[in-house]
């Protein structure tokens, strides 16, 4: 497996669940990693497929875990979804199933809510997902609304295990209608290009850090970035071999990035 010269990289795009925290627990090495990013003046962005939270809520979540990170360092699949809809169909209306992060992103993009004859049905993670909302969404799609998913993840980590994520929640609507959802989150290259643009960084100078082969690693690889798979989340070393592609490096957690960077710097001195 190849190596990455972390000291020479300008930008870091990092997943959150399974990389920075798991549930309400901060993962080992994360404070050191954030400190290193700031000390070395690296541009960084937390890019999460979780559509439930706003950037402000994610910032406050890290603050409660003891980390101070500016709100501008967060970008979510909810923001990617609203940006896509604003570009495709300015001023459109949607029937949305999701939490505050998704609803606020849609409103901020000038998109209105409509449960009668919307242009789109948009699905994210949400506690208001029920048989009633599922039935409503199904019939709206059958009536002509186009189907959008915030992300294609089928599971996400929670305290005590995993929970069905957006990809799994969209699936019954696809099965009942025959429609195919368009997913805006990772590994959609639109989201990755937005991330690089926010960092003002070329893909060759950037690193994608994540815990999933099917979203994080593939999105970084296809965007021309170096990729780090951390084993602190949902993927085991054995699972890596089931994929036809591989990350640039595999590490136990983001703390190892700091150790490798510091060690490489000392060897050069």
Please tell me about this protein's structure.
The chain has 269 residues and is an alpha/beta fold. The protein folds into 2 domains: 6-49 and 187-268, Rossmann fold, CATH 3.40.50; 78-183, HAD superfamily/HAD-like (Rossmann fold), CATH 3.40.50. It has helices spanning 30-39, 55-64, 77-88, 100-108, 131-142, 166-177, 189-199, 213-222, 237-240, 255-268, and strands spanning 11-14, 21-22, 25-26, 43-48, 74-76, 93-97, 112-113, 120-123, 146-149, 155-158, 161-164, 182-183, 206-210, 226-230, 249-251. Strands 5-4-1-13-14-15 form a 6-stranded parallel sheet. Strand 6 (93-97), helix 4 and strand 7 form a beta-alpha-beta unit. The longest helix has 14 residues, at 255-268. It is elongated.
Number of domains: 2
What Rg do the Cα atoms give?
19 Å
Q: What is the global morphology?
A: elongated
Can you identify the CATH class of the largest domain? Answer: Alpha Beta
Report the mean per-residue pLDDT as an integer. Answer: 95
Number of helices: 10
Low-confidence stretches: none
């Amino acid at each position: 497996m190849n190596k990455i010269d972390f000291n020479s990289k300008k930008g870091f795009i990092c997943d959150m669940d399974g990389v920075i925290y798991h549930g309400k627990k901060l993962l080992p090495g994360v404070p050191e990693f954030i400190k290193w990013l700031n000390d070395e003046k690296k541009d960084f962005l937390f890019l999460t497929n979780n559509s439930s939270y706003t950037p402000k809520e994610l910032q406050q979540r890290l603050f409660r875990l003891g980390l101070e990170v500016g709100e501008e360092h967060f970008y979510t699949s909810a923001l990617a979804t609203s940006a896509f809809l604003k570009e495709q169909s300015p001023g459109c209306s949607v029937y949305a199933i999701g939490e505050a992060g998704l609803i606020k992103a849609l409103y901020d993009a000038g998109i209105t809510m409509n449960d009668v004859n919307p242009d789109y049905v948009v699905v994210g993670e949400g506690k208001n997902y029920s048989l009633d909302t599922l039935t409503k969404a199904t019939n709206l799609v059958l009536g002509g609304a186009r189907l959008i998913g915030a992300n294609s993840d089928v599971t996400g980590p929670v305290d005590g295990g995993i929970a069905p994520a957006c990809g799994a929640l969209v699936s019954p609507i696809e099965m009942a209608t025959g429609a195919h959802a368009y997913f805006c989150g990772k590994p959609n290259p639109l989201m990755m290009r937005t991330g690089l643009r926010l960092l003002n960084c070329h893909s060759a100078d950037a690193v994608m850090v994540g815990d999933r082969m099917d979203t994080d690693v593939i999105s970084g690889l296809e965007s021309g970035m170096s990729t780090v798979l951390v084993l602190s989340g949902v993927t085991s070393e054995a699972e890596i071999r089931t994929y036809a592609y591989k990350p640039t490096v595999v590490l136990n957690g983001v703390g190892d990035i700091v150790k490798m960077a510091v060690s490489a710097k000392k060897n050069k001195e």
